[in-house]
Write a structure and sequence with these properties.
The chain is of the alpha/beta class and 265 residues long. It has a single domain, classed as Glycerol-3-phosphate (1)-acyltransferase, CATH 3.40.1130. It has 9 helices and 7 strands; from the N terminus they run ααββαβαβαβαβαβαα.
Length: 265
């Protein structure tokens, strides 16, 4: 575990208090709020959390802000991905069922438009599919991380196609997002990566100790209905996200190195 400085301890306390405030907000306001108000509350709360973690959202593409509904798919680096997306495009999320048992966060997820994946049976898979279909058919946004796990952000794992089926059945659009984190110098950083044996506390300390991180969310592709079969759709979404990350990184290389980067890619 990284050494904890007094300033980092104070910031962690503030993050904890912000989580508690979020729980109170969900308990008291969400039952009274319609979808637009709930989205506004999620957006504001997520932006405040990012500020507490010293994470800044880079300039946002105007096209991103016009996405009113549909399935959002993105590569997965960190738990921070959820709040980065919510800060721009408040959505429900599909998560592994064990998240539902996490202290506080699990309770917040259960009361915050989260669909939990229950593995192990066709009946559970069908239930997940029906929940996703209901959300998408109602015109709301739903987000998935189809890699099925997190990475350090250096590449994109293949996308699993099963979770794309709900968008096909609902006749909803699919928007592919590329997420990456860079440090103060603009270099890719793995500080937010929630992978391997890294605990949530370790990850938080890595983020806070990085002296500022920027998160980039790029619109990689948009697929309008009628959609292809789920395997092709997952493949094309994966290719779009991987290409968006490669393009962004190669464009920031010194001019003398860009041709070499293009050859390697």
């Amino acid at each position: 575990m990284p050494a904890v400085s007094p300033s980092a301890t104070l910031r962690l306390i503030r993050v904890g208090l912000h989580l508690l405030a979020g729980g109170v907000q969900i308990a008291l306001l969400f039952p009274l709020a319609g979808p637009p108000w709930r989205d506004s509350l999620k957006r504001r709360w997520s932006r405040q959390l990012l500020r507490l973690l010293l994470i800044e959202i880079e300039a946002v593409e105007p096209a991103l802000l016009g996405l009113d509904n549909g399935l959002l798919v993105a590569n997965h680096v960190s738990f921070v991905d959820i709040f980065a997306i919510n800060a721009l495009l408040p959505a429900g999320f599909v998560a592994k069922s064990d998240v539902a048992g996490w202290p506080l966060i699990g309770w917040m997820s259960r009361h915050n438009d989260t669909v939990f994946i229950e593995r192990g049976s066709r009946k559970a898979a069908h239930h997940t599919q029906q929940q996703m279909l209901s959300i998408l058919a109602s015109g709301r946004r739903l987000a998935i991380f189809p890699e099925g796990t997190t990475t350090a952000g250096e590449g994109v794992l293949p996308f699993h196609g099963a979770l794309f089926q709900a968008a096909i059945d609902a006749g909803a659009s699919v928007t592919a997002l590329a997420i990456e984190y860079v440090d103060a110098k603009g270099c890719l950083t793995a500080a937010p990566a929630y992978i391997g044996d890294v605990s949530l506390l370790d990850c938080l300390l890595n983020i806070i100790g990085s002296n500022g991180i920027r998160v980039r969310i790029t619109l990689a592709a948009r697929f309008a209905p009628p959609l292809q079969d789920r395997r092709r759709l997952a493949h094309h979404a994966h290719q779009a996200v991987a290409a968006a990350l490669r393009t962004r990184r190669s464009s920031e290389l010194p001019k003398s190195l860009r041709n070499t980067a293009a050859i390697i890619a």
